[in-house]
Automatic annotation (TrEMBL):
Its EC number is 2.7.7.65. One of its GO terms (biological process) is negative regulation of bacterial-type flagellum-dependent cell motility. Keywords: Membrane, Transmembrane, Transmembrane helix. Residues 265-401 form the GGDEF domain. The keyword Transmembrane helix applies. SMART domains: GGDEF (SM00267). One of its GO terms (molecular function) is diguanylate cyclase activity. This is diguanylate cyclase. InterPro entries: Diguanylate_Cyclase, GGDEF_dom, Nucleotide_cyclase, Rev_trsase/Diguanyl_cyclase. The chain crosses the membrane at residues 50-66, 110-130, 136-156, 188-207. Gene3D superfamilies: 3.30.70.270. The keyword Protein biosynthesis does not apply. It comes from Qipengyuania pelagi.
Length: 401
């Protein structure tokens, strides 16, 4: 009865425990969410390369429609350099994350490139403001400038430190360049308007990051859930083929293992029954009984690991009942293995916190010859086990031929 109780616990309660654990809400760390947001930003940058190139070509075309295209030579050159520099830094950051590096390590190269990128966009302002914005070409440049800034700010907003870094590069460079202008054409009103517009874009982008936040959190949660489900599935598989308490094969996996063996070879089957196990449960409690079963499982695993070859196995088939297949064709050697097991089980009580607890086992050894049915071999070994119990227990008996 105690053995049946343990089997039920390992089969039903074990799976129920796994199900409850999977059903619990997944806890997601903010660090993982922030890392995912950074990863999303870095991936979006790959798709923005074409837009950056088109924007630069439009501005080049528009510049040559103005009266002094050379005034834009340095700004356009800076944009030409800043774009691939930014792309390289983003690529490096993606590699850092892929290698398991910290998010802060990935941000550093990107932040430096964004300062340069923001400065390159701001360098377009002085020559642009020197022209009338009523001119179509100037309006086209201004529109490209606004579109480019909008795209970049929207892309960076989920990672505020990057958006603010880019903003600082743009704003401080724009202010510095206009302060350096020595002519009366400085248009502080235009600068204020553009700066205000930039800040509006930035504020709007920050406000619109909720969707990216939810996307990042969902991705992180799904990954955590997937990992937990994979772990739980492995545990369920373990419960399906392994005895939860002893770690040995269960009855199902024992017979599946037996089916893989070469039927032309002679082996021996050992049936092992713990002596007075019900009395152990009744006297010392089920915790003591479970401890005995765990120790027996460990002892059987140790014996199996000490045998040559890999066609041996040990299984728990019932409450206090165990069975072994040993790939040994000689009965006397098989009995020697059984005696080793009997001796090991007899010594288990010495290391337990129960002074009066004693452990022993009755073991039957049956020959599994070529062509024999395993069920019949098990029945013969069981009868030998019964004789061992009837003969005083703590004995090894061989089955009748």
């Amino acid at each position: 009865m105690s053995g049946q109780r343990t089997v039920r616990m390992q089969g039903t309660d074990g799976i129920d425990a796994i199900t409850r654990r999977v059903d619990r809400q997944i806890e997601v760390s903010e660090r993982a969410v922030n890392r995912q947001k950074l990863s999303l930003v870095l991936e979006i940058e790959k798709k923005a390369q074409i837009a950056n190139a088109v924007c630069w070509l439009i501005m080049v075309f528009a510049v040559f429609q103005l009266g002094d295209p050379m005034a834009f030579a340095i700004p356009l050159a800076s944009r030409f350099v800043a774009s691939p520099l930014t792309h390289i830094s983003f690529k490096r950051a993606r590699a850092i994350l892929a290698d398991g590096g910290k998010g802060s390590q990935a941000i550093r190269p990107v932040a430096l490139a964004l300062i340069v990128g923001g400065a390159s966009w701001a360098s377009m302002l002085p020559p642009l403001l020197a022209n009338s914005l009523n001119e179509p070409a100037a309006m086209l440049i201004f529109g490209s400038l606004v579109a480019g800034i909008t795209i970049i700010v929207s892309m960076l907003a989920p990672v505020p430190v990057l958006a603010l870094t880019y903003s600082a590069g743009f704003q401080f460079t724009a202010l510095a360049l206009l302060l350096l202008e020595q002519n009366d054409g400085r248009d502080w009103g235009a600068l204020l308007a553009i700066s205000t517009l930039f800040l509006v874009f930035l504020a709007y982008a920050f406000a619109a990051t909720n969707r990216q936040e939810e996307t990042a959190r969902t991705l992180v949660t799904n990954r955590a859930l997937t990992r937990q489900l994979e772990d739980s599935l492995r545990e369920v598989e373990q419960l399906a083929y392994r005895d939860h308490l002893t770690g040995l094969m269960n009855r199902r996996s024992f017979f599946r293992f037996a089916e893989t063996l070469d039927p032309a070879q002679t082996r021996h089957v050992l049936t092992i029954d713990l002596d007075h196990f019900k009395a152990i449960n009744d006297t010392f409690g089920h915790a003591a009984g479970d401890l005995v079963l765990e120790r027996v499982g460990a002892a059987l695993r140790e014996v199996v690991s000490g045998l040559e070859g890999n066609e041996h196995c040990a299984a728990r088939t019932g409450g206090e009942e165990f069975v072994m297949i040993v790939a040994i064709d000689d009965m006397e050697r098989a009995i020697g293995v059984a005696e080793k097991i009997r001796f090991a089980i007899g010594g288990l009580s010495a290391g337990m916190p129960y002074a009066e607890l004693k452990t022993s086992a009755s073991i039957g050894v049956g020959e599994w010859a070529a062509g024999d049915d395993l069920d019949e071999v098990l029945a013969r070994a069981d009868r030998a086990t019964y004789r061992a119990k009837a003969g005083g227990r703590n004995r090894v008996e061989r089955s009748a031929a």
